[in-house]
Write a structure and sequence with these properties.
The complex is a heterodimer of chains A (about 150) and B (about 120).
Chain A lengths: L8 E8 L8 H13 L3 H21 E10 L3 E10 L5 H4 L9 H5 L7 H8 L2 E7 L3 E9 L3
Antiparallel strand pairs in A: 1-2, 2-3, 3-5, 4-5
Helix pairs in contact in A: 1-2, 2-5
Chain B lengths: L2 H7 L3 E2 L12 E4 L3 H7 L5 E4 L4 H9 L4 E4 L7 H9 L4 E3 L4 H10 L3 E2 L8
Parallel strand pairs in B: 2-3, 2-6, 3-4, 4-5
Antiparallel strand pairs in B: 1-5
The chains are: A alpha+beta (about 150), B alpha/beta (about 120).
Bound molecules: adenosine-5'-triphosphate and magnesium ion (MG).
The site of magnesium ion has 4 residues of chain A, from helix 2.
Chain lengths: ~150, ~120
């Protein structure tokens, strides 16, 4: 994966924790940018779903995040670096059904503990680094060729 | 069947994107849990849900859901309808329960727009 030199597109965004009225803006923007480039719809869908799950996690659990979106001919990469509480037990958080969501979040249709496993399912590569009290970085890589 | 027929069968009211009336609908995914729609919903489906917030529209958008039917007579707020319109996503409201709306769609031969999973 050393096509780093040929970046076709690079954009940065920010996500504000707790800002439910704008939640999803980054993922849907990324989705329309990928559509304009003309990637296969399955690739776009996987990227959009993985990014949206990660974006929602920032809105629900973190204070803020910087999002970097990079497209090379072979890969789509979305990195969400947040400042926030971090994840104490990543292995546990990755399990389907594990959630610390409040009832308020559940009433909004989230908090089933499906997000991180769903990111893993949709991404070709997933790297998560987290430090309690500092923040979490989620790096999603999708192979662009289907 | 077309979106127009869906509206007729559910006795619903379309809130935006009238130009998509003749769009073909073949699959349905139903849930109030967006987490599940994101994990199991299939592209091209109609989403039937009782959740009327902006995240229902965002979820539909990222998951390639082509239309939303809101049940139990719940009406999305104006800004949610505006968001759906912006995204070219037709949304409709109907008075039926989630169960009844699904039953009617099933009765008319629409398929399950979600992945099958064995109980664990
Ligand atoms: N960016 C983050 N910062 C802090 N904690 C996080 C972050 N992302 C996930 N978590 C923790 O990991 C848990 C599991 O996350 P996951 O996305 O799988 O499920 P969820 O967000 O609880 O529910 P769902 O994604 O189905 O709506 C969360 O409940 C939360 O405790
Ligand atoms: Mg989540």
């Amino acid at each position: 994966m050393s096509d780093e030199g040929q970046i076709m597109l690079r954009e940065t965004f920010t996500v504000a924790g707790g800002d439910f009225s704008h939640a999803g803006r980054v993922s849907t923007t990324i989705k329309s940018m990928l559509k304009q480039i003309g990637f296969p719809s399955a690739v776009i869908r996987r990227t959009a779903i993985a990014t949206y799950e990660a974006e929602m996690n920032v809105v629900v659990y973190a204070d803020r995040a910087d999002v970097t979106f990079e497209v090379t001919p072979k890969t789509i990469r979305v990195t969400l670096a947040d400042q926030g509480q971090g994840i104490a037990d990543l292995e546990l958080a990755m399990q389907e059904g594990f959630s610390t969501a409040t009832d308020e979040i559940r009433e909004m249709g989230f908090g089933a503990g499906m997000g991180l496993p769903n990111i893993k399912r949709n991404a070709d590569e997933l790297e998560i680094n987290s430090e309690v009290g500092v923040g979490t970085t989620v790096k999603i890589t999708i192979n662009a060729g289907e | 069947m077309t979106l127009n027929e869906v509206i007729h069968i559910l006795d619903g009211e379309l809130l935006c994107c009238d130009e998509k009336m003749s769009m073909e609908i073949t699959d349905v995914c139903a849930s109030d849990l967006m987490s599940d729609v994101l994990a199991f919903g299939t592209a091209g489906s109609l989403l039937i849900t009782g959740l009327t917030n902006a995240q229902s529209v965002n979820t539909a958008d990222v998951a390639d859901i082509v239309a939303i039917a809101y049940v139990r007579g719940k009406r999305p707020a104006d800004d949610v309808v505006r968001l759906a319109k912006e995204r070219g996503l037709p949304v409709l409201v109907c008075a039926l329960s989630l169960y009844e709306a699904c039953g009617k769609m099933y009765e008319h031969g629409l398929a399950a727009g979600s992945e099958i999973r064995e109980p664990q």
